[in-house]
Each structure stands twice: as structure tokens, then as C-alpha cells.
Amino acid sequence: DIQMTQSPSTLSASVGDRVTITCRASQKINTWLAWYQHKPGKAPKLLIHTASMLQSGVPSRFSGSGSGTDFTLTISSLQPDDYATYFCQHYHTYPWTFGQGTRVEIK
Amino acid sequence: EVQLVQSGGVVVQPGESLRLSCAGSGFTFYESTMYWVRQAPGKSLEWVSLISWDGEKKYYADSVKGRFTISRDNSKNSLSLQMSSLRSEDTAWYYCARGASSGFLTSWGQGTLVTVSS
After folding, report:
1. Tens-digit pLDDT profile for residues B52-101
2. How far is CA B81 from CA A15, A47, B34, B106, in A?
3. What pLDDT digit, counting tens, does each position of A39-60 carry?
4. Most B CBs within 10 Å: which of A96, A97, A100, as the mutation test of the B interface?
5. How far apart are CA B4 and CA B96, in angstroms?
6. CA-to-CA distance for A2 and A29, rounded, in angstroms?
7. Contacting residues of A for B103, CB less than 8 Å apart
């Protein structure tokens, strides 16, 4: 199975900060990577697919980059609504796996 | 608006069976690949199963293969997950999701908490 490793596991940031989350795959996955936002008690929300494609309706402050094994999710200016947990997921080959999550907290 | 509405949470004993359901609306259900994903307490998300638009292709995670069965009824816009021989390690929030055929998940249900405990 392909392992997905996210860092950091927790991140403390203030409103307006630029935030970067990384995800590393244990083997090359081209750009078969998605990012999700998850808030407690709510359905997870797709932010980015194919490594850098912004899902319709997602604010442009979210962006994704990378290919092969190393990927990044960036929030250009953190907003109050962005405090949540973020997961990466590969869909290169079965079984698809997720990173362990990065919790973005209020500093 | 895309909606995926799941059945309520439940507590079952080890070894018992349970069927989860998910009702889709606001999109062309019969054209969509559908998925189940779960999250155990304190753990990351885990892909469980998927079913193709026509029900012909089904895939399972090794952790549930042989115990869980995914199915769909396109006439009722419904997705199901039949879970048998449940174990304590199956305790988790279970999410149904609509996805692209390539594999990313575009819409998710609100989740159903399944607790397996004696």
C-alpha cells in the first residue's frame, strides 16, 4: 500500500497567516492527489484534486502543488472559517489511502 | 444542491451484522461512482469500499474484504453497506461519498457512528 505522510500534525496560526501543509507519498503517484477539509460533526469537503485543481466553489486562497511524491496545500491568508483538519488522499492505485491529517488551530 | 443523507448511528455487539444506508439527491446518482470511507476514533480516514455506477465493479479494503458488501439501487438513489462479523476495530464514523471515477471524493454524507462493543 502507498503510505501518505502529512506534516505537521498540528499547526497554530493567526488569521491572515500564510499556511503550508505538506504530504509525501511512499511512492510516485503522478498528480493523483486530493486535499480535503474536515470540521468536527460535518461532512469532509473536497478542496483540491489532481494535485492542483481547485474544486468549484472553493475560495482561491486555497492552492495545491506538487507531483510524484511531494505535495503541498497552501492557504494564502488564513480565515476564521479555515480552522479545521486537512487530509491528503492519493488515488493512484488501490487501496487509496489518506494522510493522518493536519489540525490547524488558532494561535 | 448535492445531498447524501445517511442512516442514524447504532451500537452493536461483536459478531453482529448491520446495514448502513445512504440516500443521494441533487445529482445524477445512476452515473456516479459511490464510496464508503470511515474514521475510527483518533485515527485518520480509511477508504472502505467503492461501487461503479452500474454496480458491476466493487472494491474493498483488505480490512473488510469478505465481511462487508457494498450495493446500490439506482431506481431509489440509494447506497448500502452490509457489514457482518463486526469487530471492535470496526468502530468508526462511516461516510458515504460521491466521487469521480478516477478516485477523488466530490461530496460526502454527514456520517454515521457505528460502535461495536459488548
Report:
1. 999 999 999 999 999 999 999 999 999 999 999 999 999 999 999 999 87
2. 41, 26, 11, 19
3. 988 999 999 999 999 999 999 9
4. A96
5. 7
6. 9
7. 32, 34, 91, 96
